[in-house]
Amino acid sequence: MQRLLLKFLYVMAAIRYPQYRGDLPYFIRDNWFARLNQLRFVRRDYLTRKPYKVISFQGEFDQELRYCLPFAYWHHRNGTLKQTIGCANTKPFYYFSENHTERYTERIWQKGYDSYDVPNMTHSPTYDFGKWTPPPFKSHYRNNLFVYNKPLLVIANKYNIEWDRPPVNFLSIDALDRLISRLKRTYQIVYNRPLSGQIVLDNSEIMDLGEHAWLRANHPEVLLMNDLFEQYRTQVANYNHLQLMVYANADRFVSMHGGTAALASYFGGINVILSHPGGGFEHAFDEYSTLFPAFSGAKILHAKSTEEVFAYVDQYF
Questions:
Q1: What is the pLDDT of residues 231-263, one digit of tens each?
Q2: In terms of CB atoms within 10 Å, which end of the chain has fewer, N or C?
Q3: Domain map of the chain by residue range?
Q4: What homologous superfamily does CATH list for 140-316?
Q5: What mean pLDDT do residues 20-25 have?
Q6: What is the mean pLDDT of the chain?
């Protein structure tokens, strides 16, 4: 029965969205089926409303931020969340869960697909926000520890394999030099690019950009998240906890395609996202205009090239 319904939904998606190439209706089909699957829980979600929902996730960090966390927080607010299960060091993201277990030591990207337990579990031109409430990270983690004489600006870079190809969406050392030189007089910049030992990895191998030593030598005014982690080890639970605390005090972000961009979009303000065309389905489904602003009401500026990053920074920062 499920296979027949999935085939039917694919045909309907292809008819409804004829402008999309042939593989994209599969995502829409899965999104629709995940929403329909929620009909099984109408009684428990809206009538009895007792804790029953166990949410377990081992997929990509990006998907966890997009779909799983808002679903879990909705159940928390609804009074129906029983337990959450995730990867190591994820408790700060699930601070609202009274029973969170860090079961997994690695992320498996395939785990996020062919799973219909969470609505909106994949890319789509439209989303159902009925059971989708992003946790208010900014208000929860705002603090007096990371306060400086100038407003905080976070540059959230990455340099890793993307879609089994060399790095695509990242700021080079030359680009960082230009960006920091432009902004450091106005902002206290925090540079964030987690190393492999600080986060749970998936299929995206982290590579060596060599920028941390270069930043210390050429822009000592910039605070490195890696250095802050060493400095405040006794005051933060883990690297994710540190990220949340620093981000909560910032209103300006420059971030990269993927989980880096999704996390920065949770904290309001303005987030310039570098996401080159030709990789990722956010472009095809216009998700930087639909999904990403919904995380916190942040102003999302989608830069399709490094030059557009500079243009947005000049205009809005």
A1: 999 999 999 999 999 999 999 999 999 999 999
A2: N
A3: 2-122, 140-316
A4: Glycogen Phosphorylase B; (3.40.50.2000)
A5: 90
A6: 93
Provide CB contacts within 8 A for 164, sequence distance 6+: none
Read off the pLDDT of residues 170-191 as tens digits, 9 standing for 90 and up: 999 999 999 999 999 999 999 9
